[in-house]
């Protein structure tokens, strides 16, 4: 046990590189380094200052050393930061001398500022922002950091977080800057407008401040970022204040009152301005009344200032106050755009369609719109009422447009389907499609609905997606049948199932699984039961068939050859009254068994493909595909045969329906529920997240740790070993050959020689086990074989019984030879073991016979119930973690009462460590869609280089 703990610890807790390196240093040298470091770690902080130099924002920094009487100016900011990140010496002053700089010596606020300056100015080579101080020594090069206005929002908070910060002007020093990009209004009046004779004059009455870079207005310690549309104007205004106010006063005549008010409006966004009563701005609401003449559209416009109404431009001149000039300009601009004149009463020859589609919406944004009766009759804006209902196995979508004759609705729907903005009827009516209707039409197309013969139809399996997409749309009516189907898809646990007679007590999650399967069956949907291995997918399926198979109906079950008799035994145990036939033997025998037309027929995938014509002569109501990952490749003859096979309902059973690529789930659904997913080309463009959403109602997955809370603990260990000297010689030689093959090769060349490369990787893995797997005359030791039997001795002492898995049957043969020498009894299953013999060995082992069970990873990794074992040993890591979990699931499953220990044998310093890392990094796809993994065949070029240690 002590040796085992050491091995497990060695593999599970790798020492850090630093802990390996430190013992190699002389102890006195290390001690000197530590003392020196301790002596030069003062507490440092930065002080900040900003000023306006040459119309630029100039930042400076000072260094404050703990307990020093003052802070010292940093004369070259960029160089100072360089020294910090290089951890080099910096001369502070004659009094303090030189200190060793590092980032962690500074307080947090200082660190934040230093990191920002490094990232945005130094790392980007923006050295032009670092300026020298005029009239000072050249050593001061880089004393100032002069930044554009765009950096203010970041730098002001960073500088103001420092212990000391100042904004310095020629007249004052401020400890704070108020930065804002929305107007702030000083209390004192800055401008006023005075009336003199027949004109108005703008007078500057208080300090205005100044503007730099046309973007920043500064008044005392208020920094205000100017809106882009006001920059030119305010810059000119500031120029006038300081250079031309006396010589060129701002004077406006009565006729230019609108322009005066525009200027006053802009000024008032930033500073207070005093206006006489007649210049107080009053808002107004325009009303646009449109009527139709023979060939034109007439406009009568009214502006309402409260109770006061204006009907002409002449009326505007009599107002005792002014109006919003900018709003008036927008209205006049819109009049011209629509073909009217800049008058309150005007005519336009605009086309009726263009008026309704383009101009009318714009008028509505400006004010109130009125249409006369003739225009009202021509405009149809009511949103369509949409009905969705079940229609002979499809979902039909029907649009109902009011005020459109029945014979034109089909053409209107076609226009909407084509994402056109409108449809014009023969009578001249204009049906305007609102944004919501256009979105609905687009969403239906995204869900692959088809428009044909005036009808919109889609596959019934998209009911869930349809209900989720339109659940908040008040204009869509779902039929009662559709609502029931959508509810059942989202609440299958509430579905009522038929009575059944099964000689087993189903757990609650298994009953829910049967309800889910029965619900799908009710609506003629297929699905994937993707429960973890060991949760009873077989029992749930048998219960479904018992509850739903009518006397004249039949089911066909396809499974790996190794599981055929396991299925038959499960039927015998749970529903002995069902007629079950296994069609598996010679072709002649299989045909006889098929022609018996048993209620349940069980066969293998290869046999089904071979006997397809005979199965097509029968009529099956249910097709069950066990271990459905067998059909994950859509190009195989088996997958093609299944797509051609006509059956009412099909279910797939697989704990790992995705092992390598997202396309595998597509292949399964093309058989289980054709029509749910788009073409393979379109499917390849979908994200895993969208695929998960589409298949959600048709996949049921539960994990053991979620539903079997009483299941004993599963404890996983890495059990390490090292190469023997003879192994190491062979391993390094093979590794060098592989590295030479891959090093310097292009990605194309690596892909072209992938078969040879994968074969070479397999050879490396065989050496990790024992070179005897391929060298008949190998007489050397094997670190893994030694550690395996050391582990087996300990397991036998504890009274435990292990399952021993290996990818290599020759490895199992070598282990078998050693077991016989040690007089350890065992069973062995490989791909050559007959199915009926497998079941017999499984039964005997679970009854307590023999010490251990040798199993080929691929041949016995699925479908076996070996709860008689409480230990699992994986002799080598497999590229695909899903295969390993299937193997572990042979013991850690329903019916297990003991804790299960899993030992993964791993050879240190070899590609097995890389494979372990690769396993961890390849799980994202399955986790997103179901919870998935990768396999050797899916290794990328980068994976291969990483495994071989090639740069």
TrEMBL record:
<keyword id="KW-0067">ATP-binding</keyword>
<feature type="domain" description="Helicase C-terminal">
    <location>
        <begin position="787"/>
        <end position="945"/>
    </location>
</feature>
<dbReference type="InterPro" id="IPR001650">
    <property type="entry name" value="Helicase_C-like"/>
</dbReference>
<dbReference type="InterPro" id="IPR027417">
    <property type="entry name" value="P-loop_NTPase"/>
</dbReference>
<dbReference type="InterPro" id="IPR038718">
    <property type="entry name" value="SNF2-like_sf"/>
</dbReference>
<dbReference type="InterPro" id="IPR000330">
    <property type="entry name" value="SNF2_N"/>
</dbReference>
<dbReference type="Pfam" id="PF00176">
    <property type="entry name" value="SNF2-rel_dom"/>
</dbReference>
<keyword id="KW-0547">Nucleotide-binding</keyword>
<dbReference type="InterPro" id="IPR014001">
    <property type="entry name" value="Helicase_ATP-bd"/>
</dbReference>
<feature type="domain" description="Helicase ATP-binding">
    <location>
        <begin position="518"/>
        <end position="675"/>
    </location>
</feature>
<dbReference type="Pfam" id="PF08455">
    <property type="entry name" value="SNF2_assoc"/>
</dbReference>
<protein>
    <submittedName>
        <fullName>Helicase</fullName>
    </submittedName>
</protein>
<dbReference type="Pfam" id="PF00271">
    <property type="entry name" value="Helicase_C"/>
</dbReference>
<dbReference type="GO" id="GO:0004386">
    <property type="term" value="F:helicase activity"/>
</dbReference>
<keyword id="KW-0378">Hydrolase</keyword>
<dbReference type="GO" id="GO:0005524">
    <property type="term" value="F:ATP binding"/>
</dbReference>
<keyword id="KW-0347">Helicase</keyword>
<dbReference type="InterPro" id="IPR049730">
    <property type="entry name" value="SNF2/RAD54-like_C"/>
</dbReference>
<dbReference type="InterPro" id="IPR013663">
    <property type="entry name" value="Helicase_SWF/SNF/SWI_bac"/>
</dbReference>
<dbReference type="GO" id="GO:0016787">
    <property type="term" value="F:hydrolase activity"/>
</dbReference>
